[in-house]
Design goal:
- It is a single chain.
- By secondary structure, this protein is an alpha+beta fold.
- Among the domains are: 89 residues, Sandwich (Jelly Rolls), CATH 2.60.120; 71 residues, Serine Threonine Protein Phosphatase 5, Tetratricopeptide repeat (Alpha Horseshoe).
- The chain is built from 13 helices and 6 strands.
- Strands 1, 2, 3, 4, 5 and 6 form a 6-stranded antiparallel beta sheet that branches.
- Strand 3 and strand 4 form a beta hairpin.
- Helix 4 runs parallel beside helix 6 and helix 12 runs antiparallel to helix 13.
- The longest helix is centred in the first third of the chain and has 30 residues.
Length: 331
C-alpha cells in the first residue's frame, strides 16, 4: 500500500469529531477547515488548513477519537496516509517534522494561554464553575438558546452537584424548550448531563407540570435509576394530554427498558412507538435501540437489518448513521 490521492467535493466531510480513524492527511489543493466547539462557551471554532499542511495527525498517532470535524469548503485534493506510511515519510523528511513541531507548539501555546487565563481568573476570585454557569446565563438572556443549552449541559456534566446545579437544570430546560420552539437542532438532553430537578426554584415554576415531570424522569435516568424513571415517564403517558411530552416520554420509556435489560419488551415498545408516531423525531434512534436489542439477544441478522435500515435513512453526518455503520462493521 502507498499514500493515495482523494478528490473531495465542496461541503463533503473527511471525518467527524469522535470518529476513530488511523489515517492522516495532507492538503494538496483546495480548502479544508477543522471545526470544533469551545468547551466552556459552546462557540464554534474554525481552523483553516493551509496547502501542504498535515491534519488528523495527533488522533491517528495517539489512537484516540478525532477532536474536530474536517470539512471541505472548496473542491480539494487530499493525500491520505496510514500511520506506518506517515511515519516512514516523516522519518526521512526533517522538513515535515519541523512543520509538525511548529503546529503542535502553536497548539501548546494556545492551551498554555487558556490555562493561564483560568489561573488568573481564580486569582481574581473567579472560578471556572461560576464562569461556565454565567456563560449559560448570558446566552439565555441574549436569547441565544443553542449556546445557552450547550453551556448549561457542560456545567451539569462537570459540576453535577455544583453550587448552581439547582438553577442550571431548569434553565437548561428553558433553553431546550426555546430551541425546539425556534426549530434549532440539538434539543435532546445528554443523559449524563442532568442531576436533580428542583421545581421549587423560580425558574422551575415557569415550566408546565408535565415538563417538570419529564425532566424529573430525565434526571432519574441520568442517575441510573431506570425503574423510577420508567414510572415517571409512564405517568406522563397515562395522565397527560400534552402530545409533545407524551411522545418524548414514550421514547424515554423505551430507553429505560433497554437499560434495564428488558430487550424483548424494549423491541415491542419501540415497534409500537414507530407505528403510532411514524414521524417521531427520535425514529432513527428507536430503530438503533431495536437493532441493539437484537444484538444483545445474539440475533445478529435481525440486528444488521435494522442497522442497515438506519444507514439508508439517516444523513451521513448524523451520529446515529455513524453508530449504525460501526455496529454493522463490528458484527
Amino acid at each position: 500500500m502507498s499514500p493515495k490521492a482523494i478528490q473531495f467535493k465542496a461541503n463533503s466531510v473527511i471525518y467527524f469529531q469522535g470518529d476513530m480513524n488511523e489515517k492522516t492527511y495532507i492538503l494538496n489543493s483546495g480548502k479544508v477547515i477543522l471545526k470544533t466547539v469551545d468547551i466552556e462557551s459552546g462557540q464554534e471554532i474554525q481552523d483553516v488548513i493551509q496547502t501542504g499542511e498535515f491534519f488528523g495527525v495527533k488522533s491517528a498517532l495517539g489512537k484516540y477519537p478525532r477532536e474536530e470535524t474536517a470539512i471541505v469548503v472548496l473542491p480539494s485534493n487530499v493525500i491520505e496516509f496510514s500511520v506506518p506510511e506517515f511515519e516512514q515519510i516523516a522519518s526521512k523528511n526533517t522538513r515535515i517534522i519541523m512543520k509538525m513541531l511548529k503546529v503542535f507548539s502553536n497548539q501548546l501555546r494556545r492551551i498554555h494561554k487558556q490555562v493561564q487565563n483560568l489561573l488568573s481568573a481564580e486569582e481574581q476570585g473567579k472560578d471556572p464553575e461560576e464562569g461556565l454557569y454565567q456563560i449559560g446565563e448570558y446566552y439565555l438572556g441574549a436569547a441565544k438558546y443553542p449556546q445557552a443549552l450547550y453551556a448549561f449541559r457542560r456545567y451539569l456534566t462537570y459540576y453535577p452537584s455544583g453550587r448552581f446545579s439547582d438553577q442550571a437544570t431548569p434553565k437548561m430546560a428553558q433553553a431546550e424548550a426555546n430551541c425546539q420552539k425556534k426549530g434549532h437542532q440539538g434539543g435532546g438532553i445528554a443523559p449524563a448531563a442532568v442531576t436533580s430537578f428542583d421545581t421549587s426554584t423560580s425558574e422551575g415554576k415557569h415550566l408546565s407540570d408535565v415538563a417538570k415531570k419529564y425532566y424529573n424522569g430525565v434526571s432519574l435516568f441520568s442517575q441510573q435509576k431506570f425503574a423510577e424513571a420508567f414510572k415517571e415517564f409512564k405517568k406522563i403517558i397515562e395522565q397527560s394530554n400534552d402530545e409533545e411530552y407524551k411522545a418524548k416520554s414514550i421514547f424515554e420509556e423505551g430507553r429505560c427498558l433497554f437499560s434495564l435489560g428488558s430487550y424483548d419488551e424494549c423491541i415491542k415498545h419501540f415497534t409500537g412507538m414507530i407505528q403510532k408516531y411514524p414521524k417521531h423525531s427520535e425514529l432513527l434512534e428507536a430503530l438503533f435501540y431495536i437493532g441493539n436489542c437484537y444484538e444483545k439477544k445474539n440475533a445478529k441478522e435481525k440486528a444488521v437489518s435494522f442497522y442497515n435500515k438506519i444507514i439508508t435513512m439517516a444523513p451521513k453526518d448524523a451520529s446515529v448513521y455513524r453508530k449504525a455503520k460501526k455496529a454493522v462493521s463490528s458484527l
